[in-house]
Amino acid sequence: MMDVLDILEKNARTPTEEIAKMVGRSVEEVEALIKQLEEEGIIHKYKTMIDWEKAGQEYVYALIEISINLEEGEGYDVVAKRIAEFPEVRSVRLVSGSYDLSVVVRGRTLKDVAYFVEDKIATIHNVQRTVTHFSLKMYKDEGEIVYQRDGGGRLAVSL
Amino acid sequence: MKPISQRLNDIPASGIRRFFDLILNTPDVISLGVGEPDFVTPWHIREAGIKALEDGRTSYTSNWGLIELRELISESVKCDCNVDYDMHGEVLVTSGVSEALDIAMRVLLDPGDEVIVIEPCYVSYKPCIILAYGKPVVVPTESSNEFKPTVEDIKSKITEKTKALILGYPNNPTGAILSKKELEEIADIANEHDLFVVSDEIYSRLTYNGKHTCFSSLDGMRERTILLNGFSKSYAMTGWRIGYACGNRDVIEAMMKIHQYTMLCAPIQSQLAACEALRNGEDACTEMVDEYNRRRRLMVAGLEEAGLECFNPRGAFYTFPSIEASGLNSTEFAERLFNEKKVAVVPGEVFGECGKGFVRCAYAVSVDDIREAMTRIREFMEELD
Prior knowledge:
Chain B: Its cofactor is pyridoxal 5'-phosphate. Chain B: InterPro entries: Aminotransferase_I/II_large, AspAT/PAT-like, NHTrfase_class1_PyrdxlP-BS, PyrdxlP-dep_Trfase, PyrdxlP-dep_Trfase_major, PyrdxlP-dep_Trfase_small. The complex is a heterodimer. Chain A is of the alpha+beta class. Chain A has two domains: 1-40, Arc Repressor Mutant, subunit A (Orthogonal Bundle); 53-138, Lrp/AsnC effector binding domain/regulation of amino acid metabolism (RAM) domain (Alpha-Beta Plaits), CATH 3.30.70. Chain A is 32% helix and 21% strand. In chain A, the strands form two sheets. Chain A has a four-stranded antiparallel beta sheet with strand order 2-3-1-4. Chain A has a two-stranded antiparallel sheet with strand order 5-6. The longest helix of chain A is centred in the first third of the chain and has 13 residues, at 27-39. The radius of gyration of chain A is 21 Å and the shape is extended. Chain B is α/β, with parallel strands linked by helices. Chain B folds into two domains: 6-40 and 282-384, Aspartate Aminotransferase, domain 1, CATH 3.90.1150; 43-280, Type I PLP-dependent aspartate aminotransferase-like (Major domain) (Aspartate Aminotransferase, domain 2), CATH 3.40.640. Chain B is 40% helix and 13% strand. In chain B, the strands form three sheets. Chain B has a seven-stranded mixed beta sheet with strand order 2-8-7-6-5-3-4, sandwiched between helices. A three-stranded antiparallel beta sheet of chain B has the order 9-12-11. A two-stranded parallel sheet of chain B has the order 1-10. In chain B, β3 (114-119), α5 (125-131) and β4 (135-140) form a beta-alpha-beta unit. The radius of gyration of chain B is 21 Å and the shape is globular. The chains are: A alpha+beta, B alpha/beta. Chain A binds chain B through residues 3, 6-7, 11, 14, 18, 21-24, 152, 154-159, and chain B through 20, 23-24, 26, 29, 31, 33-36, 38, 40, 122-123, 172, 290, 294-295, 297-298, 301-302, 344, 346, 350-351, 367, 371.
């Protein structure tokens, strides 16, 4: 199972026949396994990494540190879930350290993002303080290096 | 001008060189002809090398190698192979297994001594024997016997002059491995005929059906064996040129004599990087082996779909399919596949006469490249008819 997950995590579009060959099982077995993994929610979703800049669509990303004032009978969950519902929000994590939630927001422009944080996040009742870090350049995302790397320089033949 | 040493005439310049040069100079080829990992050295190991430079570690080391590296090697061999080697005098750090192989031959051989080589095998074995004034004696193997030598075949080649036997398992180019039992049979021969065994175990970490058996761990073999291993394949460190030899004190001491007057020591940055590999490289190594295993299955299936019968390799990162179905010889096959489909493979006879009729395809390439190469090979085979 881990083998199949590993392969799909690297490339969700790997054909089932190829996965079957790679793990040494039949196509039917692998199909059934993937279906089961999907049903159990172990495979949560298949998505695509897109270089939007190359596609001609620029986005602005910002990492928002959010400090929360907890009130009696209310955990972080309530606030985190409220924030997570916004489509502008790409990720929400509860973190240890000097603030509580680490949130990534995506917008079309700097203004978009700034306005969103000011208007939608900072105004949430329990949000005590926000610090916004605009992203300047992406180097690695979801475990994938996104810059152009030099080739390994291997010779085409060696014995 | 006087001629250079006659001995060099006994080492034929590979006829295949021209073909290889052609491959090297042609862009956009999918090459299955590469004998090294396509992974770069894991970052934490590269960082150890960088740190070595930053810290000004630019000096010679002890001829034996850094004490901390020898200690780690000794521990790792103990842990992986269950053999004890004293880091003081029984472990020598070399510039790759290539150097270790060369000095092992020079230490063991007097002019005319014979060394048994089981083919197909790595291309350096025979030249190293010849350069040490020895005589290679070939034991051929067949795919029908999974490229394993038989006891009878080995015994039939032993003469009074036989001094040593070279084992290279997991094998380059066939991917064959020998089981513990099969190794024990060879150990019996070594005992019976009082032979040294040089065991090149550079691919020891790359096995896909059970764990590798270290030759010197067999009963009575520790004293007879020169165990060669290194970091190139397990940790994707080919360019660092770092390996080691373990053996009994007298042999390693003798190897050290040659090493200290020729190589002096292995590069210190590589030695420090190798320390990091042994300390923290286990996960990266396991991950690479898992990935090779998938590619191995993918390539074997692909070759068979293309109509090429393929022995199922159990170690290293090579497949060695028979190209009999093509009706071509290995060199023709390799040249035409290269010219017509831009896929490079290595003709089997490069690795010994009995490799004729086979080609070596390395699966140390990306899944995408394997997929594309297999499609092209299938097309090539279909278009041959």
